[in-house]
Amino acid sequence: MKKYLTIFILTVIIVPSIALASWWNPFSWNVWDKISSIFNKDDSIEIINKNISNEENTDNNHEVKDISNTQDVNKKPQKQEDCSLLLNTTEKNHCYLNLALLKQDPSICNLIIENEGGDPKGDCLNNFTSFAPYKLFLKSAPVFDTIEGQHRNFSLAITIKNEDVLPFITNIVIDDCEVTGDNNYRKQIYINSGGYYQFKDKALFPGEETSIEFKGVSLYLPKECSYDDKGIYICENSIEKVKNIASCNFSVSTDIYFGGKFSQTLVF
């Protein structure tokens, strides 16, 4: 009896301790945390990898877009063949202009196709101040003749050399002149008549030169009228103020029309 009583007492004391022990409680074992962390870790890795992939794609898209924009901005012709393949005349001329500026080669301007209503070749050559398709030399300084009304005539002689005007020069025109006078008088005056010379016998080809004498070139200025302090209307013949010719602007032509191409200034 005493033996059974002892076993009962030990059972009452020991069994609850065993039930409350962490090693006996399956829910307190760390193995569950480890299993859970493994599955959760996979999900987090998948999310992280997905975010990294999205960021890489976004960066790549930005990079490609930037490269595309750079290519559009810097898209310039590198050789004459890039322009000659274009079918539209305006686009082809614009291409040759860009190529001439890019290579700083004015000879490329001669590839530009002439069209009506403009001078694209001349506009191209005007970008090169050091380049002149023809040269002018003063042979005889301007000399004034008589004053006739609001007109004042003068004469001068020049030498012209065709450097690279294609196919040839047919005529040369004095477009306007800058005149000076007393009391710092200075004015740009268009030529009224006489400032035109045509190569009637034979056009002037590249490499050729000749001397030209202009006679009876007419400057015209209208009268300057105003009221004085006493209210009297007074008109003055402004052409009488002209004492000297400082410079004249010339242009040439490659057809039957008068000048208009490759404007050039000759200073006296």
Verbal overview:
It is a single chain. The protein has about 270 residues and is an alpha+beta fold. It has 3 domains: about 1-55; about 80-125, no CATH class; about 135-265, Immunoglobulin-like (Sandwich), CATH 2.60.40. Helices cover about 35% and strands about 30% of the residues. It is built from 5 helices and 10 strands. The protein has helices at about 1-20, 30-75, 80-85, 90-105, 120-125; strands spanning about 135-150, 150-160, 170-180, 185-195, 195-200, 210-220, 225, 235, 245-255, 260-265. Strands 1, 2, 3, 4, 5, 6, 9 and 10 form an 8-stranded antiparallel beta sheet that branches. Strand 1 and strand 2 form a beta hairpin. The longest helix is centred in the first third of the chain and has 43 residues, at about 30-75. The termini are far apart. Residues about 60-75 have low confidence and may be disordered.
